[in-house]
Specification:
Blueprint: E1 5-14, E2 17-27, E3 32-36, H1 43-51, E4 58-63, H2 72-75, E5 78-81, H3 93-103, H4 109-119, H5 132-145, E6 150-154, H6 162-179, E7 182-186, H7 190-196, E8 199-204, E9 207-213, H8 214-220, E10 221-226, E11 239-245, E12 250-255, E13 266-268, H9 272-284
Parallel strand pairs: 3-7, 3-8, 5-6, 6-7
Antiparallel strand pairs: 1-2, 1-4, 8-9, 10-12, 10-13, 11-12
Helix pairs in contact: 4-5, 5-6
């Protein structure tokens, strides 16, 4: 199956600074992908490269099997919602939809009207008078009514309150199910990604540090608790991602595909937040965060 997004040694440099470096990644089609990392990790740069708004400095990138933005046909297959969910404040909701119809050959006017009605937007109201959540919903309608195959979202809910964020994500889930979209969603909120994503990419320091199916990541990461500093007792098959220590015990986040039963360490489950923070702190060379216990 053609990948939704594939990169080969991809890099983007601004002056002397590499915003993205040696990025080799394959994101399967038909997935809802969470893209996460600290500020400056390269998330926005990767999404803009995929949307064709930037050109690589080195390496290559393919979107749905083709180079980004190579022509009208390829552009129509991808929708990109940038940060702050841009809309035009002086245009009404209805004028946004007419603009979308004029610019996009695959525009689905019926879908746009249905979604506007479902979320309760007044077609005559100017976008500048809408709340932040309503503007985000309008931007999502504009993106999905284009009938794309790949939807790129760059922190679209970062400035929204919890209720507006939940409503936006619910609308995204509905659109994904109805249209069988591939989605790449950048966010700082791990709980949001855990709620809707089935694939995860972690960027740190302009490079990919972790990528994989969420269920597989949860199944292969574990918490081990044992005597302080006794790392030699950890089997070689267990990759130590991060570790924290007290006078009484050591707590490890490990990644392994082999059974952990029978080790001298007490094993437990971890959540997606622990996995993300463990890999981020490891890559950044930070002190390891405490691991949160997931109840059995």
């Amino acid at each position: 199956m053609t990948a939704a997004l594939q990169t080969y040694g991809l890099g983007k440099r601004y002056g002397r600074r590499w915003a993205l470096s040696d990025c080799t990644l394959r994101i399967p089609a038909g997935r809802v992908v969470g893209l996460i990392g600290p500020n400056g990790a390269g998330k926005t740069t990767l999404l803009k490269l995929a949307a064709g708004q930037l050109a690589p400095t080195v390496g290559g990138i393919e979107v749905l099997g083709h180079r980004p933005a190579t022509g009208p046909a390829q552009l129509s297959r991808v929708s990109f919602v940038a940060q702050h969910t841009p809309t035009y404040p002086d245009l009404s909701v209805a004028e946004h939809l007419r603009m979308g119809a004029g610019l996009n050959p695959r525009w689905d006017a019926g879908l746009a009207r249905e979604r506007i009605g479902r979320i309760g937007l007044d077609p005559g109201q100017r976008a500048g008078k809408l709340s932040g959540g309503q503007r985000a919903q309008l931007a999502l309608v504009m993106a999905v009514a284009k009938r794309p195959e790949l939807l790129l979202l760059d922190e679209p809910v970062a400035a929204l309150d919890p209720l507006a964020r939940r409503e936006f994500l619910q609308g995204l889930v509905e659109a994904t199910a109805e249209q069988e979209l591939s989605v790449v969603l950048s966010s700082h909120v791990i709980a949001d990604l855990e709620r809707i994503c089935d694939y995860l990419v972690v960027l740190v320091g302009s490079q990919v540090r972790l990528a994989g199916d969420v269920e597989e990541l949860l199944a292969t990461h574990h918490r081990l608790i044992g005597p302080p500093g006794d790392l030699a007792a950890v089997p070689e098959e267990h990759e130590v991602v991060s570790a924290s220590h007290t006078d009484r015990q050591s707590t490890l986040l490990i990644r392994t595909t082999v059974p952990i039963a029978g080790t001298a360490w007490a094993a437990g489950r971890v959540g997606l937040e622990d996995i993300v923070l463990g890999h981020m702190s490891r890559s950044a060379g930070l002190a390891d965060p405490p691991l949160l216990e997931v109840q059995q």
